[in-house]
Amino acid sequence: MLTLKLIGSFCVILSCACYSQLLNQQFQHQIDHLRLLYQVLYSIKGEITYTHAPLDEIFTHLEFHYTDLIQDWSRSVAAQIEEKTQHDFYTIWEQSITHYFAAYRLKAVHNKLLLEFGFQLDKADCDTKLGSLELVLKRFQEEITHEESTLANKKRLCNYLGIMTGIFLVILLF
Q1: Which residues does the chain have with pLDDT short of 50?
Q2: Is this structure's pTM higher than 0.85?
Q3: What is the DSSP string of 141-165?
């Protein structure tokens, strides 16, 4: 009977530790998603800076440089811009961000920055647009840096809590 309790205790602690590792991976994936989004936004800004192409061409060009979700998103935005049946560009941007990037589980601050980027894209004057986009990109980079700096603490805390939760459950079971 004691061996079964020990085996059960070990399994409980192990499962709690594994769950904390799963949470750590989710934290890392969130930062990876933020880096990818920053890269996409920077690509959009670069296309505007150097080609001065219209937005539908920029998003059509984006789909050849990325795969999966980003490709689907850019194809959808380009198609909606070309159709011109939708509302203004910001409405298209907002709907596509909320639809396609919901799987990324971004924080409200990051969603707000993405929406602000789309708002700045809708400006008519190219110089004003580029300056505003640069400011949004800097703020986005600051958010990524902040998330990266807190990642180690989050992982450590998550590991401690996972093991402590397992030990607590074992104590309750005995």
Answers
A1: none
A2: no
A3: HHHHHHHHHHHHHHHHHHHHHHHHH
